[in-house]
Amino acid sequence: MTVENVIIIGSGPAGFTAGLYTSRAQLKPLLLTGNEIGGQVALTYEIENYPGFPDGLPGPELVEKLQTQAERFGTRIEYDYVTEVDLQQHPFVVRTQNGQEYRTKSVIVSTGATPRKLQIPGELELTGRGVSYCATCDGFFFRNKEVVVVGGGDSALEEGLFLTRFASKVTIVHRRDELRASKIMRKRALENEKIEFIWDTVLASINAGENGAVASVTLKNVKTEELRDLPAEGVFIFIGHKPNGELFSGQLAMQDGYIVTNRTMHTNIPGVFAAGEIQDNHFRQVATSVGQGTMAAMETERFLAELEDKRYEEIKAEMAGA
Amino acid sequence: MTVENVIIIGSGPAGFTAGLYTSRAQLKPLLLTGNEIGGQVALTYEIENYPGFPDGLPGPELVEKLQTQAERFGTRIEYDYVTEVDLQQHPFVVRTQNGQEYRTKSVIVSTGATPRKLQIPGELELTGRGVSYCATCDGFFFRNKEVVVVGGGDSALEEGLFLTRFASKVTIVHRRDELRASKIMRKRALENEKIEFIWDTVLASINAGENGAVASVTLKNVKTEELRDLPAEGVFIFIGHKPNGELFSGQLAMQDGYIVTNRTMHTNIPGVFAAGEIQDNHFRQVATSVGQGTMAAMETERFLAELEDKRYEEIKAEMAGA
User: Is B294–A291 a contact, with Cβ atoms under 8 angstroms apart?
Assistant: First the structure.
């Protein structure tokens, strides 16, 4: 049976970058895309903050460039979805939706995370046209505009405060009458003149204007069930992220659904590395994911070089002893 | 006196990326370039492994893109060289060659590192035309070619072994008759069929062919002083890097000349962050440096937000207690 050098699971910036680096290192990597090629980037209308593109570029275009570059150096890409992994034996086993069973000496996990959705009318259609899940990414587009923030946790308030640098007004809509956020974040948000709170309220829909972008939201008071419209050009939704890590549950060290890595992208199992948002709950940028994909790939190279001299069990014993 | 929000010291990928992110966050950063705009990238003939450019691009072109993008969002760039910093008082003090004295609430250090040079004829002129200081970056260009590696430490052997994936032959030239490298690396290199060692020998010059690229090296035996030519299309020089960190000596925690950072680019002084090769002796890629520049910038934003609520001394005391 063929044993792969490295299987990369996931096709966001971290995965394609890992493909680029491991293929340039002549490792002939196999990349399994998952269901959505490009991950969150593919759903991003315009990316202005990936270094090297001064005029910005559409997310799908960046994904295409990353894929082309990885393929140029020999990354083999399969449009397949991993359904099961066994990391307890080595070579590792990877099984897929298309019925393939692979053996591989190393694995790079870059399955990403998905922002939790409100699942209301308008949300999906207007993503990238006023609906956003990242203030750092998109705040700049909303200078002197009125925006709505949905959520009541630390990240909602932090991103809401960040948005006050751009927006003329930030309305935070929260379904309860108090905030889950930490005291310090609550204080900062409540004292900020640009921020207004609407309590006990959820979004019933996000509504487009004539230009096809967000023009208003329909609010629903959860106590009175009263509906009303609020004009807004931006809707930022911060109700959490769902890391795509079910596959690894019980096999890798994880925390809150995220894979635990060290600074150089090693998981707790030698030969298994992780990069991108599946192990980063904090920065979540294309630029940080490509950096992490690079590190994971270079560390994979080192691991495979070590494996030429030593049995896997020796490497494992050394790591356990370290 | 004006107090800057953030001063970025250095103009490589980490510095310009920090400029991009802090300017998009409306912090109006000031970037002081240092003597060489773009750092090592500016001296790179062709970059194939920065994700997003499937056809590769010349180093100076990437530098121009990074600079344009940082400026587009309001990064102020000064062509000036920092001669002195005082990080013991806050706001910090930064003094320059042009006689400026700045005060700033935060600093991002991205002064980079410089590969040590042999300082022989042909080295500078042929850099990027066969002379390289990075096997990960440039090895792919030397498929089925003969290359020379200079050095006898772990990194020389590791990069030499990496080059055997591409080159038809790798000749390691070392000025002594034994290797400083670790036992395991020595064993691997000595057993590799593509690697040959030439002992007690240094390079006297690197010589161009008619196409203007490296065609041979002139070797000099240090015991007999005998000179001879060896054909080679690539010369990889691994005799160490010099981090550009003298400015911070005695002020920041450092190790072997590199600034010590935690995983999110904090130094040991609150409000001072570092990114890129000044704090990374290991990966040294454009992709990792932009990731680090992004992290340093986002952590700077958080620090400045915290500074709106608290006195600097409080933040410092909290950090010391943590």
Answer: yes
> Does A20 touch chain B if contact means CB atoms closer than 8 Å?
yes
The model carries a pTM of 0.91
Q: How far is it, in rounded angstroms, from Cα B205 to Cα B218?
A: 5
SS3 content of chain B, % helix, strand, coil (to 5): 30, 30, 45
Q: What angle do CA A80, A82, A87 make, to 5 degrees?
A: 145
Active site residue B138: yes
Helix (H, G, I), strand (E, B) or coil at A106: strand
CB A294 within 8 A of CB A14: no
Beta strands in A87-174 (DSSP E): 92-96, 101-109, 113-115, 131-132, 146-150, 169-173
CA pair distance B201, B221, nearest whole angstrom: 4
Q: Could you report the per-residue pLDDT of B168-215, keeping only the tens digit for each?
A: 999 999 999 988 888 878 888 999 999 999 999 999 999 999 999 999
Of the candidates B24, B165, B282, the beta carbon closest to that of A140 is on B24
> CA-to-CA distance for B274 and A153, rounded, in angstroms?
30
The token duo for A248 is 């690894």
pLDDT tier, B151 (very low <50, low <70, confident <90, very high otherwise): very high
A112 and A35 in contact (C-beta within 8 Å)? no
Instruction: Give me the sheet containing B201-208, strands edge to edge.
Output: B201-208, B214-221, B227-231
Instruction: Report the relative pairing of strands B82-86 and B76-78 from DSSP bridges.
Output: unpaired
Q: How many CB atoms lie within 10 A of CB A243?
A: 21
Write the ipTM.
Answer: 0.90
Torsions phi, psi of B116, nearest 5? -70, 140
Q: Which of A288, A301, A304 to mutate to test the interface with B (most CBs of B within 10 A)?
A: A288
* Interchain contact A194–B (C-beta under 8 A): no
Q: What is the mean pLDDT of residues A267-278?
A: 98
Q: Is the preceding peptide bond at B91 cis, omega within 30 degrees of 0?
A: yes
Q: Which residues contact B182 (CB under 8 A, 6 or more apart)?
A: B154
CB-defined contacts A:B, below 8 A = 132
Q: What whole-number distance in Å separates Cα of residue A142 and Cα of residue A163? A: 8
Going by C-alpha positions, the residue among A277, A269, A286 that lies closest to residue A106 is A269
CA distance A314 to A34: 33
Three-state secondary-structure class, residue A30: strand
* pLDDT, average across residues A141-146: 96
Angle at A15 between CA A13 and CA A18, to 5 degrees: 105
Interface contact flag, B62 A48, Cβ < 8 Å: no
Lowest-confidence region among A72-76, A248-252, B11-15, B42-46: B42-46
Residue A108 pairs with which residues in a beta bridge? A8, A273
Alpha helices in A91-243 (DSSP H): 135-138, 154-163, 183-191
Question: Which band of pLDDT confidence, cut at 50, 70 and 90, is reported for residue B141?
Answer: very high
